Input
Amino acid sequence: QVQLVESGGGLVQSGGSLRLSCAAPGFTLDGYAIVWFRQAPGKEREEVSCVGSSGRDTYYTDSVKGRFTISRDNAKNTVYLQMMSLKPEDTAVYYCAADIERSRCARPGYSSGTFAYWGQGTRVTVSS
Output
């Protein structure tokens, strides 16, 4: 069981920024692709971004390209999602998940059903 801990969410005005963190107490993230998902009210959980174990392999869903940056610090066992120019439509609970079968991001992408275990998530609210 791999359960990750998300943090860094909050309430921010449109155009603002937040940095989310994904930590893994008792588990080493190094060597695995890490995926950020989000779930807005009334919608399905969707993939937002992915980073491979090296940090060089990254993926972004179209709606966040140019605004979000995913990175990882394997020494700190943490993955980050820097979110800039936030929009009200970014409002959601954000979750991270570890693909323990791959070191690179799976393409064409992930469905939430790929992962059996989820953390509590971190809520991001963007006001207009």
Q: What stands out?
A: The mean pLDDT is 95. The chain has no helices and ten strands. The two ends are 39 Å apart (CA to CA). The first strand starts at residue 5 and ends at 7.
